[in-house]
């Protein structure tokens, strides 16, 4: 529908057409521009609460509004710091909701940000607030700082980068504490938005591992002159109520008397009690196989074998696809004993699910097109 800025520079389609034929002229407006123009109040903002699924899988409540703020957020919105949107005069990129990110607070340690954009305000990193992107993309050094701060986490080199890029393995119930500071206000990120549980059969046993949800390597298809440093998608934005005020400047004209700005209201609170925190993390694993023993010396080789097997299946060779080896305990004949727990062996369906999970998640981690 087009919920960002309008104007000739905001549409990739228009940009491509005019690049091919400079005589083309466009007079149409986006849906959002037309809605703003028809509102006698003169307001021009949109607001989001992305919500979150409940532990039982039930979809949580979400809101999207135009020129209205839900009563529950009105007081907090009026008190929120204004985050001016930034558009570099040196970049040919389309206008975006890029705002300054002052710092990251990782496990209680504050890291000030720096920008690769020459005219970034105060030299601070610019983060694009993008509800149309699922993940977040940060520079590799910051990603390393985040995941290396988690007790017991370690980096795994993937044997097949086409299936799954290098990734961090994280104890599923380990404490994760990360906030982004914007306008002097910290926005805490729920651990569920930083760590992803991934079911995986290892040595014929159905298990779950937890890995990083923020990719290690940033691959953004941008113009020659970049316009931002961070891409902050839903994994960040669902932790705040968001208001994007075009301020009557829907084309983000740098010469206009008013300029756009955003407001963020923190929604997620850090759980400081260790017992309560562990219970919350265990609830996030509900319905999944038991967590793998990542301290086992054989864990990493088995994990790399599973990834290689997934690569073989993708390339048309299903052998060794994570199933039990002949003669292993997982392939031994049934001794007649009944068990009250789920089967330990990984059937074909489980291997297929694992393969699909790895391939899809690998695609997410490998590249984000903006």
Automatic annotation (TrEMBL):
<dbReference type="InterPro" id="IPR033121">
    <property type="entry name" value="PEPTIDASE_A1"/>
</dbReference>
<dbReference type="GO" id="GO:0004190">
    <property type="term" value="F:aspartic-type endopeptidase activity"/>
</dbReference>
<feature type="domain" description="Peptidase A1">
    <location>
        <begin position="1"/>
        <end position="255"/>
    </location>
</feature>
<comment type="similarity">
    <text>Belongs to the peptidase A1 family.</text>
</comment>
<dbReference type="GO" id="GO:0006508">
    <property type="term" value="P:proteolysis"/>
</dbReference>
<feature type="region of interest" description="Disordered">
    <location>
        <begin position="311"/>
        <end position="343"/>
    </location>
</feature>
<dbReference type="Pfam" id="PF00026">
    <property type="entry name" value="Asp"/>
</dbReference>
<dbReference type="InterPro" id="IPR001461">
    <property type="entry name" value="Aspartic_peptidase_A1"/>
</dbReference>
<dbReference type="InterPro" id="IPR021109">
    <property type="entry name" value="Peptidase_aspartic_dom_sf"/>
</dbReference>
<protein>
    <recommendedName>
        <fullName>Peptidase A1 domain-containing protein</fullName>
    </recommendedName>
</protein>
């Amino acid at each position: 529908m087009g919920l960002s800025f309008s104007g000739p520079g905001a549409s990739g389609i228009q940009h491509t057409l005019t690049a091919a034929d400079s005589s083309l002229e466009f007079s149409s407006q986006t849906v959002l521009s037309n809605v703003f123009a028809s509102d006698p109040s003169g307001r021009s903002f949109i607001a989001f609460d992305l919500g979150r699924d409940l532990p039982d899988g039930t979809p949580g409540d979400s809101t999207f509004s135009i020129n209205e703020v839900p009563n529950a957020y009105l007081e907090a919105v009026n008190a929120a710091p204004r985050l001016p949107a930034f558009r570099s005069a040196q970049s040919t990129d389309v206008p975006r909701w890029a705002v300054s990110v002052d710092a990251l607070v990782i496990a209680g340690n504050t890291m000030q940000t720096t920008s690769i954009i020459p005219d970034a305000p105060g030299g601070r990193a610019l983060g694009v607030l993008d509800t149309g992107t699922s993940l977040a993309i940060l520079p590799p050094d910051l990603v390393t700082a985040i995941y290396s701060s988690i007790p017991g986490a370690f980096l795994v080199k993937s044997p097949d980068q086409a299936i799954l890029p290098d990734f961090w393995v994280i104890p599923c119930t380990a404490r994760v504490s990360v906030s982004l500071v914007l306008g002097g206000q910290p926005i805490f990120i729920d651990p569920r938005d930083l760590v992803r549980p991934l079911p995986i059969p290892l040595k014929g046993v159905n298990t779950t591992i937890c890995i990083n949800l923020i990719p290690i390597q940033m691959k953004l298809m941008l113009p020659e002159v970049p316009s931002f440093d961070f891409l902050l998608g839903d994994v960040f934005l669902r932790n705040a109520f968001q208001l994007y005020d075009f301020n009557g400047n829907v084309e983000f004209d740098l010469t206009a008397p008013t300029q756009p700005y955003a407001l963020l209201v923190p929604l997620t609170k850090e759980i400081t009690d260790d017992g309560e925190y562990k219970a919350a993390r265990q609830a996030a694993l509900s319905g999944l196989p038991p967590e793998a023993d990542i301290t086992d010396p054989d864990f990493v080789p088995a994990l790399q074998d599973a990834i290689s097997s997934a690569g073989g299946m993708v390339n048309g060779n299903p052998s060794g696809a994570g199933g039990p080896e002949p003669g292993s305990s997982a392939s031994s004949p049934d001794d007649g004993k009944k068990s009250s727990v789920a089967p330990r062996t990984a059937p074909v369906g489980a291997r297929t699910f694992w393969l699909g999970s790895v391939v899809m998640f690998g695609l997410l981690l490998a590249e984000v097109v903006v």
